[in-house]
Amino acid sequence: MKMLNRCTLEFASQPENVAFARVAVAAFASQLDYTLPELEEIKVAVSEAVGNAIIHGYRNKPDETVQVKVVIYKSGIEIQVVDQGCGIADIDLAMQPAYSSDPERMGLGFVFMRSFSDRLQVVSAPGQGTTVIMFKHIKMRKAKARAN
């Protein structure tokens, strides 16, 4: 797959940066022909992944670093959200609906990420951080007829 464009964002693990990440990634993704609802899905998936890094990975420590890597291909967009936090001991368990390491959370982050991306991969180990990799295909649309 040939890369068309890429960007990397790096920011402090502060809750207010979730909105920044979601808007920045959606703006970058708009280079492809995503519909507005598809861009909204990308924004939700990014919000959930970045929020998980801050809340669960870093346990709300505001001075850590979250990295978001975005690559645009002709076929779609790949988004990686990387933290160097506490990691996930049991990825299969963490991806179950309603599971959360924080009892005040609903545990739907991975559910949203999975439903709003075409491919989801989570790489993690205790004490080594977590990388969430999401891919969203661009649906081929019929070319708009030109008015002559």
Kindly provide the radius of gyration, computed on alpha-carbon positions and rounded to a whole number of angstroms.
Answer: 16 Å
Sketch the major β-sheet.
Answer: 5 strands, antiparallel
Physical arrangement of strands within the biggest beta sheet? 1-2-3-5-4
How many β strands by DSSP?
Answer: 5
Distance between the termini: 36 Å
- What is the mean predicted local confidence, pLDDT? 91
Class derived from helix and strand content: alpha+beta
Number of helices: 4
Portion in helices: 25-40%
Question: Which regions are unreliable across 5 or more consecutive residues at pLDDT < 50?
Answer: 143-148
- Please tell me what the overall shape is: globular
Strand content: 25-35%
SSE string: EHHEEHHEE
Topology:
Layout: E1 3-12, H1 17-29, H2 36-57, E2 65-73, E3 76-83, H3 91-94, H4 109-115, E4 119-124, E5 130-137
Structure notes:
The protein is of the alpha+beta class and 148 residues long. Helix content is 31%, strand content 28%. It has helices spanning 17-29, 36-57, 91-94, 109-115; strands at residues 3-12, 65-73, 76-83, 119-124, 130-137. β2 (65-73) and β3 (76-83) form a beta hairpin. α1 runs antiparallel to α2 (36-57) and α2 (36-57) packs antiparallel against α4 (109-115). It starts with a strand and ends in an 11-residue tail after the last strand. 30% of the residues are buried.
